[in-house]
Design goal:
Helix content: 40-55%
CATH class of the largest domain: Alpha Beta
CATH topology of the largest domain: Rossmann fold
Number of domains: 2
Distance between the termini: 40 Å
Strand order of the largest sheet: 7-6-8-9-10-12-13
Shape: elongated
Radius of gyration: 21 Å
Number of strands: 13
Structural class: alpha/beta
CATH superfamily of the largest domain: Response regulator
Order of helices and strands: HEHEHEHEEHHEHEHEHEHEHEEE
Length: 317
């Protein structure tokens, strides 16, 4: 059973004058969690993973804030956490550059900061936890190339035609997933005939895919930077009765989302992007107890296909 979450006013009223080696707020460590949005299933899962990991540690009190995909709101909420004197801050930023100053401000106020999933600029934080998005993008690209080279038209000397539906391109995951994927396409008979920023949102991906279908009579593959975008693209293609002619791949690999889509045959592959929620709580406990932690923790990833999803997928090479 979760402990009651302290209200912001109550939290702000608590004293922040205790020594850093012990909780500033009575007998509990107050950990603030700044989530950039809860409109993506993957981020809902991240918060759930953090809550679950913290349940075994009654000495931690979690305070969650949802920035609702608004950078200015997230900056303001981080400032509220600073003013409240939280013992530790976990931040999953919407964008790198705009969130760098408030993260640095928290760090300069003596608040340990764990940056989760998306990076900020500089080094004014305690630890970054996340998977290697460039590696994931490269693995998705290698898989896509192998799949496209097996098409009869490409075997006969033709070129494959693909659509790329990116995540938010002002975020580091979007940039790295694109760069890794494009590295795999170098020198291959593959043309990107349509590309659009979906901001990680399924409805936007569906609308962009409708546009791609309208101007491209031949699409062989859709690479989406997350599974909701891949699913939105699939739904658009199904509405146009073209879903059977297109290969769909995405990233996230959640058990209740990407893996299900693979089992159902909607996606041919989903590449896991672990949330890091459990690891963030583990690191928070070490930091709060005065133990040293590495500057960066890189999480391992798996990928799921119809042949491997039942057995838990395969680890990336």
């Amino acid at each position: 059973m979760h402990k009651p979450i302290l209200s912001l006013l109550a939290l702000a009223a608590l004293s922040a004058s205790a020594a850093p080696a012990s909780p500033r707020h009575g007998d509990k460590w107050i950990v603030g969690m700044s989530q950039c949005n809860l409109g993506e299933p993957w981020r809902v899962q991240m918060n759930a993973d953090i809550r679950k990991a913290a349940e075994a540690h009654p000495e931690i009190e979690l305070v969650f804030k949802d920035a609702q995909n608004d950078t200015l709101r997230q900056r303001s909420q981080i400032e509220e956490f600073i003013n409240a004197g939280v013992d530790l801050l976990i931040v999953s930023p919407k964008e790198a550059a705009p969130l760098t100053p408030p993260v640095a401000a928290a760090f300069s106020h003596g608040i340990p900061v764990i940056v989760l999933d998306r990076k900020v600029l500089g080094n004014d934080f305690t630890q970054f936890i996340g998977a290697d998005n460039r590696r994931i993008g490269r693995a998705a690209g290698d898989w896509a190339v192998r799949r496209l080279l097996a098409l009869p038209r490409v075997k006969d000397g033709g070129r494959a035609r693909m659509v790329e539906l990116t995540g938010l391109m002002t975020s580091t995951p979007g940039q790295d997933r694109l760069a890794g994927f494009h590295a795999a396409l170098q020198g291959q008979p593959v043309d990107i005939v349509f590309s659009a920023d979906t901001q990680w949102l399924e409805p936007q991906a569906r609308a962009e895919m409708e546009s791609a279908l309208a101007v491209n009579p031949q699409i062989d593959l859709v690479y989406a930077h997350n599974d909701p975008a891949a699913h939105g693209a699939y739904l658009a293609a199904k509405s146009a009765s073209r879903e059977k002619d297109i290969i769909f791949i995405g990233i996230d690999g959640l058990p209740q989302e990407g893996q299900v889509y693979v089992r159902q045959g909607l996606l041919e592959a989903s590449f896991e992007y672990p949330t890091g929620g459990r690891e963030a709580v583990e690191s928070a406990l070490k930091i709060l107890n005065g133990d040293a932690v590495p500057r960066q923790v890189t999480l391992n990833s798996r990928f799921f296909t119809r042949d491997t999803v039942a057995s838990g997928g395969k680890w990336l090479p």
